[in-house]
Write a structure and sequence with these properties.
The complex is a heterodimer of chains A (310) and B (481). In chain A, 50% of the residues lie in helices and 13% in strands. Chain A has 310 residues and is of the alpha/beta class. Chain A has three domains: 144 residues, P-loop containing nucleotide triphosphate hydrolases (Rossmann fold, 3-Layer(aba) Sandwich); 38 residues, no CATH class; 82 residues. In chain A, the strands form three sheets. In chain A, strands 2-5-8-1-9 form a five-stranded parallel sheet, with helices on both faces. A two-stranded antiparallel ribbon of chain A has the order 3-4. A two-stranded antiparallel sheet of chain A has the order 6-7. Chain B has 20 helices and six strands. Chain B has a six-stranded mixed sheet with strand order 3-2-1-4-5-6, with helices on both faces. Chain B starts with a helix and ends with a helix. Classes of the chains: A alpha/beta (310), B alpha/beta (481). Chains A and B meet through helix 2, helix 5, helix 9, strand 9 and helix 11 of A and helix 2, helix 3, helix 10 and helix 12 of B.
Chain lengths: 310, 481
């Protein structure tokens, strides 16, 4: 970093605030059927104002990824997604030189002339094969170079190794990527960045420090009911309420895997497809395997919640 | 405002939360962008910028509620940012909630006096409707009537909470409410609907308890000021709870963090093992790969390393004083058993028994640990710890099975009730095994006092490790694998 960075990271005027207020976020997310709560909307609002990435944590299936998608939708931005996995490296996340093309270029040069390689021609060649033509952009670089508004989603960041996390740091704090052969690529507009984590391991302090932290847990009864009603077309209020209440009750049992919101939605969809307007113990029992994924959990739920006594 | 925030950060740090300078600055920057009148937004803003671990949220929540319970306008007079607005907003909030705004003023003066019957009536109504406003009013009345709060007493409020709740007789009320709702909706006992109703009622009771707690806290802050109170309500973070002296609630909390903790540990270890060091160059694969780059070996491949895994033998004292510590350790060791070639566990009080079989084929270590408590045969004479006898029996029955591959962990406080130590057994184990470690859940200062004979054994162990909290335990087990 040679040039002094001014407070606003040098983004052009075009990156005006995306949201008026937390309430504005809430309303607009609601319009695309993502029912946020106060914490979610304030963090999304702050992410835009403070120009900071958001680290979203929480149990699987509570809408972490969906949040990024919905934010992209309401801001009219393109979603760029980087799915993390073990063994992800620079060449898959940031950029890669196109070796094959470079080799071809060198070979083509040799055949044409036959003359010995001089310092000059070598220099020209080097300039040439390390130009943008031979650069393969990967999601992170693509998000930085994009001219149109983008939302960058770095999904399941806890899956990469601790060392790989480091390559995210420059992007997250400065919104730039340094390529040794080309120099530093700076973002022309500020992308909203969401990182999700299922918390399978502790993320590094350095990464956490650069992000706003948001924990998305299971919603309360009223919100879950509203989510179901919004996400499942043709569901009756009564059924939505029952589904939400059953899911809530199941989560208080000690299960190996508590039903997530997305599983609850799936379950509600199934019930609607089966033409149910309300649910009784019998039909709940038959469809329970959609909600719970372990046999021992299913048995437990049957025993504790659905057994018909007397 | 900046001063206020700094004060809050200091309080958070005192509660054990790691708030860095950058995070503090972020928070200061962030609150410029929000309306300070909105308490929920203010709270989530602070949480988002300063609390980066969900397990710490409870501690943050408590600190926030105490610290910002009732801030005076006067304190922020000289700041350019209007704290006044903040305090006003809170007051407005408070009066919204309670319906009558005379909270401030005399120490415990808020809320009109209610008779016991009126209170019970209102309680029932509030629970039935699940109405937040009514609940706070009940909480207010109940605290006033039952808690018997005395100004100036340096307590944390748990006692008041207990007194108030006992007098409200919530169990009876919830039963009554349940019966009534059942009758109203014509729901049969023990049916699905009935169970859901019960869950509803439980949830409402929980909310009421919260309201009472908030009310008590509010009064305590009025009485003694936020800083003083913060000190007495401060609780350790789950991973810093002293396992030996944990209360029932804390044990529940510990159990809850243990599972994600052991999972994380397992993932970390598995990863370390896989990536630890590279094996030798895999010529075949490298040549195969180089074909796509015209024979230039751009992408060398290496063979997978195969480090040896240790065999673990755990010998744990499960007598009353250290039982919960032994349980957590066994749970953790078995949860990551895939990292070891073999795990064998023995538990003792004055007799000793092998319990490895309980863990075989069981998915959930917690279940196995539970069975140990009920089924293991560990009492020889009187059921008081006798390390000497237990170790001697171990040596007789399993002594020969310790090999150069074994790592032996002995768990216990070495309080031997003045029996013989039989330390030669440990010496002999140390001779045969690769490592012998002793994990002691007592603070180091207590070692060797009273009937503790830890130093008799320590001579022969490679290390005696103080292991009072989950944090220490996790660190040790992580190093072991």
């Amino acid at each position: 970093m040679t040039q002094p960075s001014d407070g606003d990271l040098g983004f052009s005027e075009s990156s005006a605030p995306r949201f008026e207020s937390p309430q504005d976020v809430l309303d607009r997310l609601g319009a695309v059927n993502y029912l946020a709560d106060d914490a979610i909307s304030s963090v999304a609002y702050l992410a835009d104002r403070l120009r900071k990435p958001v680290l979203v944590e929480g149990p699987a299936g509570t809408g972490k990824t969906q949040l990024a998608k919905s934010i992209a939708e309401i801001t009219g931005a393109r979603l760029i997604r980087l799915q993390c996995y073990e063994g992800l490296d620079e060449s898959k996340a940031l950029y890669e030189w196109n070796y094959r093309k470079q080799l071809l270029r060198i070979q083509a040069g040799q055949q044409g002339e036959g003359a010995p390689v001089t310092a000059d021609s070598w220099h020209a060649l080097e300039e040439d094969i390390f130009s943008e033509e031979f650069l393969l952009t990967r999601p992170l670089l693509e998000a930085i170079r994009a001219k149109d508004p983008v939302v960058l989603l770095i999904d399941e960041v806890d899956r990469v190794e601790l060392e790989t996390e480091a390559l995210l740091l420059e992007i997250l704090s400065e919104f730039q990527v340094s390529i040794p052969e080309l120099g530093t690529v700076k973002a022309t507009q500020f992308p909203l960045v969401f990182l999700t984590s299922n918390n399978t391991r502790e993320l590094s302090e350095a990464l956490k420090r650069r992000c706003l932290f948001l924990y998305v847990g299971y919603p309360d009864l009223e919100r879950e009911q509203a989510i179901i009603a919004a996400r499942v077309p043709g569901i009756t209020t009564e059924l939505a309420e029952q589904v939400a209440r059953i899911a809530g009750a199941l989560r208080t049992l000690e299960l190996k895997k508590a039903p997530s919101v997305s599983e609850t939605i799936d379950w509600a969809r199934t019930l609607v497809l089966l033409g149910k307007n309300s649910i009784d113990a019998e039909s709940a029992k038959e469809t329970l395997h959609i909600l719970l994924k372990y046999q021992s959990d299913i048995e437990r739920a049957r025993k504790e919640l659905l057994s018909v006594a007397g | 405002m900046i001063d206020l925030l700094s004060g809050f950060v200091i309080e958070l740090r005192a509660a054990g939360l790691p708030v860095s300078l950058t995070e503090h600055l972020d928070a200061a920057e962030a609150i410029r962008h929000i309306a300070l009148t909105d308490r929920t937004t203010f709270k989530s803003t602070l949480a988002a910028t300063m609390v980066k671990n969900h397990e710490h949220y409870a501690a943050f929540d408590l600190a926030f509620e105490v610290f910002f319970a009732d801030r005076d306008v006067a304190q922020g007079d000289d700041d350019e940012l209007d704290l006044g607005e903040l305090a006003d907003g809170q007051d407005a909030n408070a009066s919204d909630l309670t319906g009558n705004g005379n909270l401030k003023g005399s120490g415990g003066g808020g809320g009109s006096e209610m008779s016991a019957e009126e209170l019970a009536d209102l309680l029932m109504k509030a629970l039935k409707e699940g109405d937040t406003q009514k609940m706070s009013r009940v909480a207010q009345g109940a605290v006033k009537r039952y808690a018997g709060m005395e100004p100036g007493r340096p307590v944390g409020g748990t006692y008041y909470l207990y007194r108030t709740l006992r007098n409200l007789n919530l169990e009876g009320v919830s039963q009554e409410l349940l019966d009534e709702m059942r009758a109203a909706k014509g729901v049969a006992k023990e049916s699905l609907d009935d169970r859901l109703l019960k869950a509803d009622v439980d949830r409402r009771i929980e909310r009421l308890k919260k309201a009472v707690e908030t009310e008590i806290r509010k009064r305590l802050v009025e009485d003694r000021g936020a800083e003083a109170l913060a000190k007495s309500v401060r609780k350790p973070l789950p991973e810093d709870i002293d396992v030996m002296h944990a209360t029932k609630d804390e044990l529940v909390q510990l159990r809850r963090v243990l599972q994600p903790l052991s999972r994380k540990l397992a993932v970390r270890l598995a990863r370390r093992r896989r990536l630890g060091k590279r094996g030798a160059l895999d010529v075949r694969q490298t040549v195969r790969r180089s074909l796509s780059t015209g024979g230039v070996p751009i992408d060398p491949r290496f063979k997978k390393p195969r480090p040896s895994k240790p065999e673990i033998i755990v010998i744990a004292d499960i007598s009353g004083s250290v039982a919960s510590f032994a349980r957590f350790t066994l749970h953790l060791v078995h949860a990551i058993s895939s990292q070891f070639s073999k795990v064998r566990s023995f538990v003792f009080i004055d007799g000793i028994d092998e319990v490895s079989r309980f863990f075989d084929g069981v998915e959930d270590p917690a279940e196995a640990v539970h069975r140990i408590n009920t089924e293991a045969d560990v009492v020889y004479l009187d059921g008081h710890s006798d390390y000497g006898h237990a170790l001697r029996s171990f040596h007789q029955r399993w002594g020969n099975e310790i090999t150069k591959k074994s790592t032996v962990l002995i768990l216990g406080d070495a309080r031997n009730n003045y029996h013989a130590s039989e330390a030669w057994v440990v010496a002999d184990i140390a001779e045969k095994a690769r490592h012998v470690y002793w994990l002691n859940p007592e603070p180091r200062d207590y070692w060797g006092s009273g009937d503790s004979i830890i130093f008799d054994y320590a001579k022969y162990c490679e290390g005696v490790i103080e292991c009072r909290t989950l944090r220490q335990l996790e660190a040790f087990v992580g190093d072991l694998a």
